[in-house]
Write a structure and sequence with these properties.
The chain is globular and about 35 Å long. It is built from five helices and no strands. The protein has a domain of about 80 residues. Helix 3 crosses helix 5 and helix 4 runs antiparallel to helix 5. By secondary structure, the chain is mostly helical. The site of heme C has 15 residues, from helix 4. The site of heme C (HEC) has 15 residues, from helix 4.
């Protein structure tokens, strides 16, 4: 009788340990998922907004420019400048470098399309956008 008791007791304890371990590991998986998603949203980069001051500075440096022009330049940049390679970070090049690179790239874009893919006006907007953003 004693041996049977011990046997039942042991299996109850074992079952308890197994179920406990299983539920613990499930809980910790859920926790780590929740943590990682929180971390991702917390480290999302902030976009530096274009201000009226930026537009005024570019107007003095280059030609009359509005905030809407600069935002438009950003839209064109995002649409046209990541076609052949990844979008470059505006602050990866200096103002003077962009002034040399943009016309060169517009030529490439137009040659690839076999037509005027980026107009001279759009080229100016891209360049103005990059000159603002590379200094931000
Ligand atoms: C038709 C394809 C194509 C398009 C569209 C294009 N690029 Fe490029 N880009 C290239 C190639 C090829 C290279 C590498 C060869 C070189 O540097 O000339 C390059 C290189 C670059 C580099 C590194 C070169 C350096 O001198 O530092 C930058 C920066 C760049 N592109 C920016 C742009 C921007 C801004 C636009 C939009 C106006 C653009 N690209 C659109 C093909 C393209």
């Amino acid at each position: 009788m004693k041996a049977l008791h011990i046997c039942i007791l042991t299996s109850v304890i074992l079952a308890g340990i197994v179920s406990c371990t299983t539920s613990k590991s499930t809980t910790s998986t859920t926790n780590s998922n929740a943590n990682s998603s929180t971390t991702t949203s917390a480290t999302e980069p902030k976009k530096a907004a274009i201000t009226q001051e930026d537009a005024d500075n570019i107007s003095k440096k280059m030609s009359l420019t509005t905030v809407a022009d600069l935002n438009n330049g950003g839209t064109i940049y995002n649409a046209e400048c990541g076609v052949c390679h990844g979008l470059k970070k505006p602050n990866a090049r200096s103002e003077d470098e962009w002034k040399a690179i943009v016309p060169n790239m517009v030529q490439k874009a137009n040659a690839k399309a076999g037509k005027i893919q980026i107009t001279p006006g759009q080229e100016q907007l891209i360049l103005k956008y990059l000159v603002v953003m590379c200094n931000k």
